[in-house]
Amino acid sequence: MAKVATLITDLFEDIEFTSPKEALQEAGHTIVTIDKEGNKAVRGKQGEVRVEIDYGIDDVNPDDFDALFIPGGFSPDLLRDDDRVVAFAKKFMSDMKPVFAICHGPQLLITARSLEGRDITGYKSIRVDLENAGANFHDEEVFVCQKQLVSSRTPKDLPAFNREIVNLLKEKEL
Q1: What are the domain boundaries of the chain?
Q2: How do 142-145 and 99-102 pair as beta strands?
Q3: What are the φ and ψ backbone dihedral angles of 51, each rounded to 5 degrees?
């Protein structure tokens, strides 16, 4: 089963973390939460969810994980100002490991300069940013690029997003 690194900080979109987390755990995968610093808790922007952070970014190595999950909300924008977090995300893209990004999650991949020529979807307000990063934007509930990058637009797309992230890990037998 896969060990999934989850880059998350305050103001993540509550359901965009909890729903995929539950789907991945039900499929037998392990979720590990990572922020700039460890030993703390973060809160969702709806105020419904509190998440204990397992590790700070300095305490983890991308090579120790099978996949990366980036929930949306304001969290990806707050994380992408840290070069350590950006480098962590970029390594998954460079190594062609599974990456799951929903809503504003792709903002971290934009900063990592990892989307040139890739197919992706995301929240409509970041469409121009994705296109400027060289990505091909698709206004679809879920898009799977090169059997590696799974993206979705909004919470209403969660059933399709969850299905595809679980299917991709099953295909890769992680």
Answers
A1: 3-172
A2: unpaired
A3: -120, 125
Within a 10 A sphere around the Cβ of 41, how many other Cβ atoms? 11
Please tell me the pTM assigned to this model.
0.98
Tens of pLDDT, residue by residue over 35-86, are: 999 999 999 999 999 999 999 999 999 999 999 999 999 999 999 999 999 9
- Distance, CA of 23 to CA of 42 (rounded, Å): 21
Q: Which positions are annotated as active-site residues? A: 103-104
Superfamily per CATH, domain 3-172: Class I glutamine amidotransferase (GATase) domain (3.40.50.880)
CA dihedral (115, 17, 67, 139) in degrees, to 10, reads -30
- Helix then strand count (H, E) for the chain reads 6, 11
Q: How far apart are CA 71 and CA 15, in angstroms?
A: 9
- Do 7 and 32 touch, CB atoms closer than 8 A? no
DSSP track, 101-167: EETTTHHHHHHTT--TT-EE---GGGHHHHHHTT-EE--SSEEEETTTEEEESSGGGHHHHHHHHHH
Distance CA 42, CA 31 (A): 15
CA distance 171 to 55: 28
User: How many C-beta atoms lie closer than 10 Å to residue 134's C-beta?
Assistant: 13
Cβ atoms < 10 Å from Cβ of 171: 10
